[in-house]
Amino acid sequence: MTTAAREETEQLDPRRWLALGVCVSAVFMTLLDVSIVAVALPSIGASTGAGPSELQWVVSGYALAFGMVPIIGGRLGDDRGRKRVLLVGIGAFVVCSALVGLAPTPAVLVAGRVLQGLAGGLINPQVAGLVQQLFPRHERGRAFGVLGAAVGIATAAGPVVGGALIGLGGEDFGWRICFLVNLPVGLTALALCARLLPAAPRRGSPRPLDLPGAALLTVGVFALLFPFVQYDADHDLRLLLLLVPALAVLAGFVGWERGPGRRRGHPLVDLGLFRIRSFSDGTVLAFLFFCAYTGTPLVLALFLQDGLGFTPLQSGLTASAYAVGVAVSAPVGGRLVPRLGQRVLVVALGLFTVGVAATAVLADRLAGSAEPATVALAMAPALLVAGLGGGSVITPNQALSLADVDVRGGSTAGGVLQTAQRIGNAVGAAVITAVFYAVVSGAAAGGTVRQADHGRGYAVSLLVSVAFAAAALVVAVRDVRRRPVPGPAGD
Fold first, then answer.
1. What is the pLDDT of residues 3-29, one digit of tens each?
2. At which of 196, 228, 256 does a domain end?
3. Which residues fall in a coiled-coil region (predicted)?
4. Residue 44 belongs to what domain range?
5. pTM of the predicted model, to two decimals?
6. Are 308 and 394 members of one domain?
7. How many of the other CB atoms lie within 10 Å of CB of 169?
């Protein structure tokens, strides 16, 4: 560390790492609720009497709401104080988690999940902005490493945690524990964030929220996400027609932000962000990678439970190899960013692609010819490699994407990046699971579906994941060729 960097560090809040840990626990809570519900759906249906459409909206309602809010939440945090908006988000998330966990009917459950998603979307962009606010440039790689570990582990570990909690609480009550566990975690995070986070810097009068821009963005993102998340329930390709008005509304949003929104002096998103090459490339990479990353554990759970007959707990334990890889590599990837830059992304995406491809080959060859336990054990090393690669993408990409962004707009930029991730989640989950079901349904048309048919469906769906990951790798390689290798940290 240089003398200037050392002096800068000495002037910083000594509690910043503890504050980061508390903020990250809130992020982890919101992201775990994206994936934990996958293994809980059968129990929810048996306990509440929810039908297939209602169960789909338990997943989709959260995903839609979660994806609509980050940019607006980021702007509110930048203008009105990240601490204040973060506390509002955590408090609302706790209340909505209680509503979901205690829901007496499917309608209340779905409504609670939508509200829970809106609250979760407020939380995440504040934490990205706080990392930039609390940490100097030479520490942000490590700080984003901690945040990236939470993102990666929560996404990958949801089925593991969900299976364990359902096994602990039983079919009737276990799924409720999956949501009620947010209460002690959230209340603790709320109290500690209020104590540890600094007050917002003094500014002039906050800019008014760009309401026309917010309305256009909300409608556009909803219309863009809806056909993908609803496809899982209906499998109706006509839903894709909704993409036409969605893109038209988003084009209208861009036109408003470039024209009237900018002239009024307070656009929702400063489109100049996208002239920052590192930010625009990082946003594209985030979208492509999350298309691959989120769908991979989702179809794994389908293959293990529908194809191999695993219980939710057994499925979660098998997926733990993937989660362990993510947990190990996410903080390491953040530490390597100052020295290696985009090269970290190239290596990580290569590992992820190889691991997913190897998993596909093993499942296709072994399913139907080996015992289910043998198939799971054989896949574990490949899942570990995929997790090691996947965990090393999220942190470096977030740090590199936001590195050149003005700290004053950090939450808005973080919101844009997270919206790209949420759209990638929806697109990847819809496309990858659609391919899985298409292959399995094709086999069913010819007679009884065999274990080998599920293995083939899983393998073919993972090839889609490989294609998304390869596209992200192309973006990363292009950036490496464009940028020099960074000097030692602190230079």
1. 444 444 446 778 888 988 898 889 888
2. 196
3. none
4. 15-196
5. 0.79
6. yes
7. 16
